[in-house]
Amino acid sequence: xxxxxxxxxxxxxxxxxxxxxxxxxxxxxxxxxxxxxxxxxxxxxxxxxxxxxxxxxxxxxxxxxxxxxxxxxxxxxxxxxxxxxxxxxxxxxxxxxxxxxxxxxxxxxxxxxxxxxxxxxxxxxxxxxxxxxxxxxxxxxxxxxxxxxxxxxxxxxxxxxxxxxxxxxxxxxxxxxxxxxxxxxxxxxxxxxxxxxxxxxxxxxxxxxxxxxxxxxxxxxxxxxxxxxxxxxxxxxxxxxxxxxxxxxxxxxxxxxxxxxxxxxxxxxxxxxxxxxxxxxxxxxxxxxxxxxxxxxxxxxxxxxxxxxxxxxxxxxxxxxxxxxxxxxxxxx
Length: 333
What we know:
Elements: H1 2-8, E1 26-28, E2 31-34, E3 55-61, E4 68-74, E5 87-92, H2 100-103, H3 117-127, E6 132-136, E7 140-142, E8 146-148, E9 154-155, E10 161-162, H4 171-186, E11 205-211, H5 215-230, H6 235-239, E12 241-247, H7 262-269, E13 274-279, H8 281-284, H9 290-305, E14 311-314, H10 323-332
Parallel strand pairs: 5-6, 5-11, 11-12, 12-13, 13-14
Antiparallel strand pairs: 1-2, 2-3, 3-4, 4-6, 7-8, 9-10
Helix pairs in contact: 5-7, 7-9
């Protein structure tokens, strides 16, 4: 929930955007494949170079042509330089985070360029070396800062969500499956995920990671979970989700930063999905937003009451709350 406090500090919000359609690319199965940007000389001196193997896919459609997201792909590499893994990790970023060259255009974003989407892709590649890493860019960045995942969940201009139940052919699960299927075809991966009516490839598994605002996508998936499991066109896909990671979730709404609905959490506890909750004092110990810490506690306790064993950790608990530590949880989880 970085965005609210950025506004509170009086940071100037710039309204000029750089259209992604202006970047060179080639047509590829309904999406455009863009080359990785060259390293910028003004990049923060403390940031590592993003992996050269990152592939950018622009305007990949989801469950309908009007719902598109840009993605970054980092492929796993084996000793024989092949890409045969059926494991996939999807990351949903928070506010401020964007492609590196976009962040460098705006002075308010430059201090955090070390947490650009390219940099995060490299971090996740080291965390999950045997998996395909997909960094999903929010479909809209309001005022260059506020990540809005409106193709996954209804939200206001600042990205605060309004969660809803599963609707066949719509919603977060439908968009997620179609988006990943189209992206895999666009990237020419072997054994791509087929449309909903097709069989899931053998060995396919999915890990979902949400950071800060990106956790709203994971929360929406939880609200849709009962309906998705009951839908024969979606149930096999849901069963391939092995892990879900919540990393210091936060958004500008006044509630539902963490899911506390007992029926929803009961479904999650019985699903077999491994749940991981990593937080920092920046979110769960903020006295001005005390409900975040309370909701996090209810989320973990309720899952435990239903027999689940969520992994949980409060990072940097002996350090003052800070935005830097908020971002650092991406490296530490």
